[in-house]
Amino acid sequence: MSLWTRITEALSALASGEGLGAMFDKLRKPPELTVGFAIAVIALGAKMAKADGRVTRNEVTAFREVFAIPQADEKSAARVFNLAREDVAGFEDYARKIAAMFHSDSAVLSDLMDGLFHIAVADGTYHPNEDLFLARVAEIFGMTKREFAALRARNVPDARPDPYTVLGVDSSMSLEDIRKVWRGLVRDTHPDRMMARGVPEEAIKLAQSRLIAINNAWEEIQTHHGG
Predict the structure, then answer these.
(1) Contact by Cβ (8 Å): 42, 26
(2) Whole-model pTM?
């Protein structure tokens, strides 16, 4: 059964009047977590679309880039998006339920943030309100300011990113300690690990740009240290 078939089935439960928030409460165990991840990105993405006051064609395309949504399943994705936009619940309520759904697993929540960043920059502009939105979501997810800064540096193509910020390390750390952080990030970005923590196979492509940024930062730090 495909991811989108399972999402369609999950959405059918909303006929009873339950909202997406109630759905998040039910999607806490594998394999439902993969459904929960997809719905979480689309739902928070819909809330974020309100942050800059508009939904562009590029942002809609970005959803398809994250999940490779088959044309036949676009209606299911659109339904999740529209339900989230129309829901009176605020994005903070969604974020808290999503954090609980994944038991505040920092790795999978970082995966989810990568998806949101991908959508935020899809129109070529990273709006200040989107930054505030994502910073607040990260805070609810239990991320530190340094962790959020690392996510932003890896995803927002504005100025040349500081390699230490990209890896979430301090420039005063030894090269060996930074190497350990880099190896951990690379390990967590492996597709098998991502799928094991609930990221749908359709969204694994999120890791490609992250891995490039991580490796580029490490190479730059090595050069700086003369390694």
Answers:
(1) no
(2) 0.81
